[in-house]
Design goal:
single chain, 39% helix, globular
Length: 257
């Protein structure tokens, strides 16, 4: 389980940000400063904060986060030992102060410049049709190895057939959603890979938006392909079980005292 969060304050963080950018990382020290600079450029003029969750890094990630927090509205929390990417996302969303959440992978492959467009789509969807919505990034031109692309393609087909989540690229780390929606979802290891299905189970809607995807230029992957494949079949059946057990009561009236 995560240790008590070690949170650090940010430089000139807004009192009430509209958007919290949540980034789970493990051993990503070289990518911290460049990604923070890109986020700040992309979200200039938008009340926001950046929430990093260090998932038990053994490199210089803590030092890189402390340095980045000197010049950006950044807060960082740390798990004493690695608990996995989903646990890091949950920790970050719980600590976030924004009404909206954007998640990003910490390796620099997601492009922060896409965040304002996904946020605008999410806000328009909620205003036009009502109800909670998840906007999921769709990496149309993936910049990954053949093995990653192939395994993801197979996994997406199986997942879509079993769960019916209507999402072409559920593995994309770039997503935008209301914080309150996420907090209502069941939280478990690897749940971040099934956010579309879990949102649909909760009565929300899911839409996909094409996003930029870039090759990794610093460091190496810390949440690997083999790890994903090893647990995917158990996760799929577990989420399918949750879908069948879901019930959403409709409240018709309430009394006032």
């Amino acid at each position: 389980m995560p240790s008590a969060p070690d949170a650090a304050g940010a430089a000139a963080a807004p009192a009430q940000p509209l958007l919290s950018v949540v980034i789970p990382v493990r051993n990503e020290a070289p990518n911290i400063a460049p990604l923070v600079a890109e986020i700040e450029a992309a979200l200039a003029g938008l009340p926001h904060e950046i929430v990093y969750v260090d998932d038990g890094s053994s490199d210089a990630t803590p030092e890189a986060l402390r340095e980045a927090a000197r010049a950006a509205p950044l807060r960082h929390l740390r798990h004493r030992a690695s608990c996995g990417q989903s646990a890091a996302v949950v920790t970050g969303v719980k600590a976030a102060r924004g009404a909206w959440i954007a998640t990003l992978d910490g390796d620099g492959q997601n492009d922060p410049a896409d965040i304002p467009r996904l946020l605008a789509r999410a806000q328009a969807e909620m205003q036009g049709k009502g109800g909670p919505v998840l906007v999921a990034g769709h990496r149309v031109m993936r910049r990954d190895s053949w093995v990653k692309r192939r395994s993801s393609r197979i996994a997406n087909r199986i997942r879509a057939r079993l769960l019916g989540d209507a999402t072409p690229d559920t593995g994309c780390g770039l997503k935008v959603f209301p914080r309150a929606l996420f907090l209502d979802l069941p939280h478990f290891d690897h749940m971040h890979r099934f956010l579309p299905a879990l949102v649909l189970r909760q009565g929300g809607r899911v839409v996909s938006e094409p996003v930029n995807h870039r090759p990794r230029v610093r460091g190496s992957s810390n949440y690997g392909t083999l790890d994903r494949l090893a647990v995917s079949i158990f996760d799929l059946f577990g989420v399918a079980w949750l879908q069948r057990r879901g019930a959403r009561p409709v409240i018709e009236a309430q009394s006032e005292t």
